[in-house]
């Protein structure tokens, strides 16, 4: 069982030490050795997230803490993937679900398809179903390992590999949290090659293609559609806002580009 070492300060000195570890698997392994169950990989089941699980296990962490946010609107193939990952790696993927009363109140006040009404209501839906459950998990963490990559959008290209963010807990207190993106500099092609070369389970929708149309980004089942060969990678997310928003503004709220703001 992983146990956290005592008296670890989350500061620039620690960041500098971690930045010396170039291998992503070894970086994660060191984090799990240092922080134990206070470190976790957050994944939605896309290319980078599944690669991270495989890498850290190959680096010697047999039971890494892994979680996903279950918005209760995920694709059936997403749930299938999580079961396959759990079986292959003998791990348990924690499912962080939204608060039932909060979802019921939102639907009662705004309707089931609130996200079609406006950008503000889409963000509200994401906050209830995704951001709030994720924040509850972060209350239990000192290290949040994510699958973000620089090639996903211009805004994400500004994210640091190892960074300190301020997390506001449910009790209102703020504290430093390490946000680590081990594969930030990897291209999607490089991640895909790693996944296939190492027989890592793959989300079935990410392998589908018809006349060039394919899924490049996955979220909730209604809010995610395939993209054409000529569209940007996040054009399929909340497609009805494409005439208003570019990829930099296609976010659910989990990952802010200003990492000094609270998560």
From TrEMBL:
Its main location: cytoplasm. Binds 1 [4Fe-4S] cluster per subunit. The active site is at 252 (nucleophile). Its cofactor is [4Fe-4S] cluster. It is an enzyme of class 1 (oxidoreductase). Pathway: Sulfur metabolism; hydrogen sulfide biosynthesis; sulfite from sulfate. One of its GO terms (biological process) is sulfate assimilation, phosphoadenylyl sulfate reduction by phosphoadenylyl-sulfate reductase (thioredoxin). [4Fe-4S] cluster binds at residues 125-126, 220, 223. GO terms for cellular component: cytoplasm. GO terms for molecular function: 4 iron, 4 sulfur cluster binding; adenylyl-sulfate reductase (thioredoxin) activity; metal ion binding; phosphoadenylyl-sulfate reductase (thioredoxin) activity; transferase activity. Residues 41-226 form the Phosphoadenosine phosphosulphate reductase domain. It catalyses: [thioredoxin]-disulfide + sulfite + AMP + 2 H(+) = adenosine 5'-phosphosulfate + [thioredoxin]-dithiol. It is found in: Cytoplasm. Its EC number is 1.8.4.10. It holds the Pfam family PAPS_reduct. Keywords: Cytoplasm, Iron, Iron-sulfur, Metal-binding, Oxidoreductase, Transferase. Belongs to the PAPS reductase family. CysH subfamily. Catalyzes the formation of sulfite from adenosine 5'-phosphosulfate (APS) using thioredoxin as an electron donor. This is Adenosine 5'-phosphosulfate reductase. It comes from Candidatus Scalindua japonica. The gene is cysH.
């Amino acid at each position: 069982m992983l146990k956290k070492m005592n008296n670890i300060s989350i500061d620039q000195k620690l960041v500098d030490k971690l930045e010396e570890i170039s291998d992503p698997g070894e970086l994660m392994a060191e984090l799990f050795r240092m922080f134990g169950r206070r470190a976790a990989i957050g994944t939605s089941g896309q290319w980078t997230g599944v690669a991270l699980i495989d890498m850290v296990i190959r680096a010697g962490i047999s039971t890494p803490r892994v979680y996903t946010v279950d918005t209760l609107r995920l694709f059936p193939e997403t749930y299938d993937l999580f079961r396959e990952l759990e079986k292959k790696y003998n791990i348990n993927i924690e499912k962080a679900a939204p608060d039932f009363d909060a979802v019921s109140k939102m639907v009662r006040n705004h309707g089931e398809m609130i996200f079609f009404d406006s950008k503000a209501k889409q963000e509200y839906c994401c906050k209830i179903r995704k951001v709030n459950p994720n924040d509850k998990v972060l209350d239990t963490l000192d290290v949040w390992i994510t699958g973000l990559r620089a090639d996903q959008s211009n805004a994400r290209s500004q994210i640091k590999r190892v960074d300190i963010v301020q997390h506001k807990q449910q009790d209102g207190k703020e504290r430093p949290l390490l946000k680590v993106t081990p594969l930030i500099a990897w291209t999607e092609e490089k991640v895909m090659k790693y996944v296939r070369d190492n027989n890592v389970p793959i989300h079935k929708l990410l392998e589908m293609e018809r006349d060039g149309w394919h899924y490049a980004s996955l979220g909730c089942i209604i809010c995610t559609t395939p993209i054409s060969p000529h569209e940007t990678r996040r054009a399929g997310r909340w497609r009805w806002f494409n005439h208003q928003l570019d990829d930099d503004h296609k976010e659910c709220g989990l990952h802010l580009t200003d990492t000094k703001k609270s998560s």
